[in-house]
Amino acid sequence: MRGVALATLLLFAAGNASGEPTKSIFGDATYWRSRPSEAEVVQAAPKGVSLDGGRAIMACKAAPDGRLSECQVLHETPATGLGKAILSLAPKYLLKPEAVNKAAPNGWVTIRESWSESDKQPDWLRRPTAEDLKAAWPVRAWAAGIGGRADLDCLVTVSGGLFDCVALNETPAGQGFADAALVMTPQFNMRPAQRGGAAVVSDIIIPIRFKMPGGVETGGPAGRELPPPSVPLLPPVAKWAETPGRAEIAAAFPSAARAAKISGLVAMACKLTNDGRLGSCFVDRDEPKGAGFDKAAKLLVQRFRIDPADVDGGVANRQIALRIAFDTQLLDDAKPIFGKTVVLAQPTFEQVIAAQTATKTVSIAGRAVIGCTIGASGRLENCKAESEEPAGSGLGQTALALKDDFRMSTWSEEGLPIIGQRIRIPLRFEKIDEVAAAKP
Length: 440
What we know:
With 440 residues, the protein is α+β, with helices and mostly antiparallel strands. It has four domains: 114 residues, Fusion Protein Consisting Of Minor Coat Protein, Glycine Rich Linker, Tola, And A His Tag, Chain: A, Domain 2 (2-Layer Sandwich), CATH 3.30.1150; 84 residues, TolA/TonB C-terminal domain; 92 residues, TonB (TolA/TonB C-terminal domain); 93 residues, TolA/TonB C-terminal domain (2-Layer Sandwich), CATH 3.30.2420. The protein contains 13 helices and 23 strands. It has a four-stranded antiparallel β-sheet. It has a three-stranded antiparallel β-sheet with strand order 9-8-13. β20 and β21 form a beta hairpin. α11 packs across α12. About 10% of the residues have low confidence.
């Protein structure tokens, strides 16, 4: 099912972060004079890319007559070109003139296209509390008595955690409320969406409102120590140099929880040491409490490491958000589960040209699919060419020549290991003489 929403039209009722769910506002009649049809979106999508479960977010400047300009892609999931497809259709989005002020109060409108099938929408299991908000409040804004709001667009896992979150906007701008809202997401717990009685991944928009209590507390926010606003918390999808595997998680699994077949989840914020290891960690969430998952998580953090060279500005005084999901399915070697991987680096335009030159396919346009295993540090291993079009073109070997230029995540945002997972990577190639003047 296709859904189109403006960033100002939220899944959760405005008021506070614990608002009751309401229906998403997707209709043409209220805000849109016109927008692309389903057929136009399908036609614009990259060939061979499934829309199911995908989403694309773009921001555009709205003119008084409802026309959009200066559009730019903010995010896409997965990174397969859906954002570029929606961007190509930007002229077909026209707001009603009378709706412009409401849809784009600051002159810009954020448009989100999503495709997900579910017959039951996600809902809260654990809402953020006032103390959660206070702990994440930007330090300088709190000291100045400033409140604010941020709207997040997130995916909800089948276990109810949030991942791949994007801040759509913040008010007032530049006060750090978008970063503060993103820092809080590991603490959220939701009932996942369902399709045919089974839990499925779905997307959701959540408004987080930071309401200032009466008076200014000059001592700053209570709760855990936060990094200064100028040093943001690193996201959990990082270029990990080392992460624990399924066997190590199984070994750390609390014995009583293992016997009772109880799954758990631990969310924490950890300081990075100078060599990229995780130092002192503050546990934000431990569920179910008393089952020993917090102690198991503190043992496993010793197996995480980030190469300081992979962090802009180094790791000094940095913190990172981390989730560890103790899913009982991790104990079953016959049915291994893995987290959702993210492409952290991919071949550049110049590297593609070099590979096509080396394999003598510079005058061939087509596509190829390679199957690989995600190895340590996110490198691709045991790759094989699964298909190529046209057949016998050699593009399969060209794709294999690019495998070392990819870097994948090795730990998922929902807290599951990724190393050892088998993935398929599609690549499309153009004739070099036709794209030599194009930008990467």
